[in-house]
Each structure stands twice: as C-alpha cells, then as structure tokens.
Specification:
Blueprint (H helix, E strand, L loop, with lengths): L1 H18 L38 E2 L11 H9 L12 H11 L6 E4 L1 H13 L10 E6 L5 H7 L3 E6 L8 H7 L4 E7 L11 H10 L5 E5 L14 H7 L3 E6 L12 E4 L2 H10 L7 H12 L1 H24 L11 E4 L5 H10 L2 E2 L1 E3 L3 E5 L3 H13 L8
Parallel strand pairs: 1-10, 3-4, 3-5, 5-6, 6-7
Antiparallel strand pairs: 2-8, 7-8, 9-12, 11-12
C-alpha cells in the first residue's frame, strides 16, 4: 500500500514538474503575440565570416564602414564617463551642430537610434490604423531595405511593395499609380539598399508633385555621403521645397558609428511637432552624441576616408564589368549581384574564402565594400564563378 502511494505521489510530482501546475489543474495557455508578429519577416543581420585556417576573415555582409572612427572621435568616446546619467532626451548639442553643418533650423531635426530609429518614429506618428480600424498604407519599392516591412507591420500599417526595375531602380511611375486614399507614407531609398542605384532629381520631383500633399514622402539617404552621381536627388533640396518631404540620415555608414546608433530626420515644424511626441526618449546616448559631434568637427577627414571607399567601390564595379558581369549602378558602399538561383551557392563559396556576404533568398547577393584585400579576394572569387549575374 505504501509503495503504491509513493508511486502515485511520484507520478503527480512529475506531472507538476512538467506542467507547472498541480495535478488535475489545466496548464496555462501560451502567451501569444499580436497576430501581425507571426506574419512579419525576421530581420536577418549580416553574419560574421567563419574562420578559415590560413586566411584573414572579412565581413562584407552588413554595409559597415571597415575603417574605425577617427582618432578624435575615439577620444571623444573615451571622455564620456558619466554614463550613470541619462542623456539629453532631444540631443540638443548634436542638433545645434547639425543645424550649422546642414544649414537647416535645429527645430527641424529629430534624432533617433540610427536612421531606422528615426523612421520608426515617423511611422509611429503617421501610419497605423485609422479610427475605422482599417490599416493605413505605406508604399515603397521592393526589394529595398529589409527592415521596411517589419517597421511598417509593427506600426499597424499595410505594406504596398512595388517591384524595382530590372536594373534595380525605383519604378516611380508604378509607385505613383499605386497611391490610394489610404496611402499615408511613401518611402524612397536612395541609393537603394541592396541594389545600389540612386533616385535622380527630376524624376523624384515629378513623383513628389504627383502624390497628394498630405502623403508623407520620406527620402532615406543612409548612404548619401557615398553618392557621386551628379544627377542624384538632394533630399535637403526637396525638404526645403515641399512641406511633406522628410529626409533620413545616419552616422552609421560614412562616419563609422554603426555601433552607437545615431541617426536623425529632417522635416518641417508641422511634421516635427508630431515626431517629438512619438520619439523614443533618450534614443541617442551621450556617448553617441559626442562622438557624432566630434566626427562633424573633423568632417574633412571623414570625407577623405569616404573617398577611399568610393575609389574601392569603383574599382570593384569596373573589374566586375570587365569580366562580363552585369552590375547595377553602385552609389552606396556595396554592390549588387543579381544571381537568382545561384545566390546561395555563391554565398557558400564566399564563406570557403573567409568572406561573409549578404544573400537574399534566391534574388541576389549584396557585397559591402571592405578592405582592399577583401575586395580583391571577392573579385578573384567572381572570376572563377561560372554563373554570372543576370544581364539587364
């Protein structure tokens, strides 16, 4: 009898251990997220390369600046020791410095955690669901920055994706035709990440003029410092001319401060008044703010470094075309290979050469411009790869 009781008690104890409840009590239901979470793609950050004996590894998968911040910027970072205190919630010193640098009012600048943080603030303020429960629409080219559908979905809005042209450009005519009464925001990524081409001045202005003035047009210029196309649109000129234009910029790329998350938007006061309500408090740290200011204070050195990366980009694109590969116009710090079904094969082969690249399903591969040795090794890999990108 005692043995049977002990056996029963042991079984009940085991049941409690597994279910977390007393025997006979229903287990609690799982805590489910909002339905939209399961429908959203997951952001896939570029992975570091796997080590290969005898080879220096290079990460070419995240569009990072391969050069560290300037020495003066590193000194500014080291000097910030009061990290026990909250930062200035509106980054007043940085906004004042940017105002002088860009020639815009400081009140027109709203900082955020990188340009993506600044974008999320825009979407929180201007796109979601109306009082009727119907989602607003956010229109953008695709493929473009892979965080766009995630950010739009989390805001409660609906993504409207318009395919890029065969050579990786925004199809602005198709985008204009897709604008409806539910459209609240249009995202223009220039240079387009991951394909590379810029939007040009005249076509962009025609597009802005074609959409209703109550639709927010966001010009995402995360790679603006790398652009050398003289016909490229200038987001600041559009913001000055059209009240519904917002410009996004960042210190992550050209300034090499990706790990500190410093970005900002520029727009008219009638827009910024709402952005400040939606802004994440303390999004830019004191360390990040002072690093960004120091980088602006040494902008000539930043420009010089950026030019070395532009020179490498041009070397890479010229070499790819010499071997007969079709490559879209590259105006960022990366190149796009339209490899289609050979995408994953190329990425695996690059990994065997201690190079990590960013593969997008079966669409293509984005390769960041890195150190000269990394770029040269990438080119050697391309010379031996028999499945060239699709021509356009």
């Amino acid at each position: 009898m005692t043995s049977a009781l002990n056996s029963r008690d042991g079984a009940e104890a085991a049941a409690v251990a597994v279910s977390g409840t007393e025997a006979g009590t229903p287990a609690p239901e799982a805590v489910d997220p909002r339905p939209v979470i399961n429908r959203l793609p997951k952001y896939a950050a570029g992975k570091p390369p796997a080590p290969i004996p005898g080879l220096q590894s290079y990460k070419l998968s995240s569009n990072e600046n391969p050069l560290p911040p300037l020495p003066a910027v590193l000194d500014a970072i080291a000097s910030q020791t009061a990290v026990n205190r909250y930062p200035d919630p509106v980054a007043s010193a940085l906004r004042a410095r940017l105002a002088g640098f860009l020639g815009v009012p400081a009140e027109d600048i709203v900082t955020g955690g990188g340009s993506l943080g600044a974008l999320n603030q825009l979407l929180a303020a201007f796109a979601g669901q109306g009082d009727d429960g119907i989602p607003d629409e956010v229109l953008y080219a695709w493929r473009s920055f892979e965080a766009y559908p995630i950010s739009v979905g989390l805001a409660g809005a609906k993504s409207v994706q318009i395919p890029v042209t065969r050579d990786g450009r925004h199809d602005l005519e198709a985008m204009a035709a897709a604008v409806t009464e539910r459209t609240r925001v249009v995202l223009l990524c220039t240079p387009n990440n991951p394909t590379g081409p810029v939007l040009r001045r005249e076509e962009t202005e025609r597009f802005i003029q074609s959409v209703p003035s109550d639709v927010l047009v966001v010009i995402d210029e995360a790679y603006q410092e790398f652009v050398r196309d003289e016909d490229a649109v200038d987001g600041l000129a559009m913001y000055r001319k059209y009240p519904n234009v917002v410009v996004l910029r960042t210190f992550s790329k050209a300034h090499g401060l990706a790990g500190l998350r410093v970005g900002y938007s520029i727009s008219r006061p009638e827009i910024t008044q709402h952005l400040r309500v939606a802004a994440v408090p303390f999004a830019v740290s004191t360390v990040g703010e002072h690093a960004a200011i120091a980088s602006l204070d040494h902008i000539a050195e930043v420009v010089e470094r950026v030019q070395t990366l532009v020179d490498e980009r041009d070397r890479v694109t010229a070499a790819l075309r010499e071997i007969g590969w079709s490559v879209p116009d590259a105006q960022g710090n990366f190149v796009w290979l339209d490899l289609g079904d050979a995408t994953q094969e190329f990425a695996v082969l690059a990994a065997t050469q201690a190079l990590s690249v960013r593969a997008f399903g079966n669409e293509g591969v984005r390769v960041s411009i890195g150190e000269p040795e990394a770029n040269s090794r990438f080119l050697e890999l391309c010379r031996t790869f028999t499945k060239a990108p699709m021509a356009y």
